[in-house]
Specification:
By secondary structure, the chain is α+β, with helices and mostly antiparallel strands. 31% of the residues lie in helices and 18% in strands. Strand 3 and strand 4 form a beta hairpin. Helix 2 crosses helix 3. The protein is globular. The model has no long low-confidence stretch (mean pLDDT 83).
C-alpha cells in the first residue's frame, strides 16, 4: 500500500510496479534543441540508507550532500521506509 500511494504520489507512478524504473517522467529539449527524455531509475537495488536518503530528498555525491531535483519529500517514518525497502527487496529477489 505504501509503495502504491505513500503520500498522494505513488512510487510506482515513476519507478514502475516493482521498482524497475525506466518509466518516462518528462520530455525536454537541450540547449541544441535535441529531444531528451528523463527516465526513472531502478530502485530495487537501493540499500536501506540510499532509500532513506532519497525519501528524505537528499543524497551524497562525491562526499557532498545534494538535493534531488525531482524526487518529492515524503516525510515517512523509519517503519514506513523499512516496509517499502522490504517490498523492493522482495521484487529484486524475483528478477
Amino acid at each position: 500500500m505504501l509503495y502504491k500511494n505513500p503520500r498522494g504520489i505513488a512510487c510506482s507512478k515513476c519507478h514502475g510496479l516493482k521498482g524497475e524504473g525506466g518509466k518516462k517522467i518528462a520530455k525536454y529539449y537541450d540547449k541544441h534543441q535535441n529531444i531528451k527524455l528523463l527516465r526513472s531509475s531502478d530502485i530495487r537495488g537501493y540499500s536501506l540508507k540510499e532509500l532513506t536518503d532519497s525519501l528524505s530528498n537528499h543524497y551524497r555525491e562525491n562526499g557532498r550532500r545534494k538535493r534531488h531535483k525531482i524526487m518529492p519529500v515524503y516525510y515517512m517514518t523509519k517503519e514506513e521506509i523499512l516496509a517499502i525497502y522490504t517490498y523492493l527487496k522482495s521484487n529484486r529477489e524475483k528478477r
